Amino acid sequence: MKTTQTKTRWWWIRHAPVINPGQKLYGQLDLDVDLSDHKKFELVANSLPKNATWISSPLTRAKETACLLAKLAIPDGKIKEYDQLKEQAFGDWEGKKWDEIDENISKSFWENPAKNCIPNGESFNDLVRRVSKTIDELNNQYSGKDIIAVAHMGTIRAALTHAIGGDGHAGLLFQLKPISLTRIDAIHDNNNNIWWKISGVNLYGSREFGELA
């Protein structure tokens, strides 16, 4: 039987900046979002495919970012929310500043930030497993299509980790700015093989971005 290939294209977008004057760790806390950077929103929206499936984390900062982008890109676009795309759970650290966290616990965590679990929260590797399972399910559901996913830095780092083979330490090296684009392709064949291609990270949209379509 002849082998055929199908490409499912992921357009990951980190949410707009949160409104967090106290500079607290927020993880899965549902904070408000600053949607005022219209130029960046327009750049990103103009770079997105028109016939895509839109998905989002259910947290306000992701939902509202997705709604504004969808309004600019395709006004009648529907957005489906997935709990599995939430940010890493920071457990006991959520709502605290760094200097409010027990120094011994913090030091122990940073000895292996991919593997170690935040007290009553998740490790980054936990997040990678959660997000990877969802990506694989959606690859099957929307095979060969464009998926626009609005989520969090941790979620997108997890997607990058999945694409590069599951090394959490490598995934944590990526820094992603608000309202930035990350493009990842899942290339799969009829023999259940899959390859990944990372086309760009931390993009805002430009003439050059068209080459990643």
Key attributes of the depicted protein:
single chain; Rossmann fold; alpha/beta; 213 residues; 6 strands; six-stranded mixed sheet
Shape, principal axes of CA atoms:
globular
Which ranges are low-confidence, i.e. pLDDT below 50, for 5 or more consecutive residues? Answer: none
Mean pLDDT across the residues is 92
Largest sheet: 6 strands, mixed
CATH superfamily annotation: Phosphoglycerate mutase-like
Number of helices: 6
Q: N-to-C SSE series?
A: EHEHEHHEHHEE
Give the CATH level 1 class: Alpha Beta
Biggest sheet strand order reads 3-2-4-1-5-6
CATH topology: Rossmann fold
Distance between the first and last residues' Cα: 29 Å
Helical content stands at 25-40%
**How many E-type strands?**
6
Structural class: alpha/beta
The radius of gyration is 17 Å
Q: Domain count, please report it.
A: 1
Name the beta content range: 15-25%
The CATH architecture: 3-Layer(aba) Sandwich
Can you give a write-up of this model?
There is one protein chain. 31% of the residues lie in helices and 20% in strands. It has helices at 38-47, 60-73, 103-110, 124-141, 153-163, 168-171, and strands spanning 5-14, 52-56, 79-81, 146-151, 181-189, 194-203. Strands 3-2-4-1-5-6 form a six-stranded mixed β-sheet. The chain is built from six helices and six strands. It has a single domain, classed as Rossmann fold. It is globular, with a radius of gyration of 17 Å. Strand 2, helix 2 and strand 3 (79-81) form a beta-alpha-beta unit. The chain is α/β, with parallel strands linked by helices.
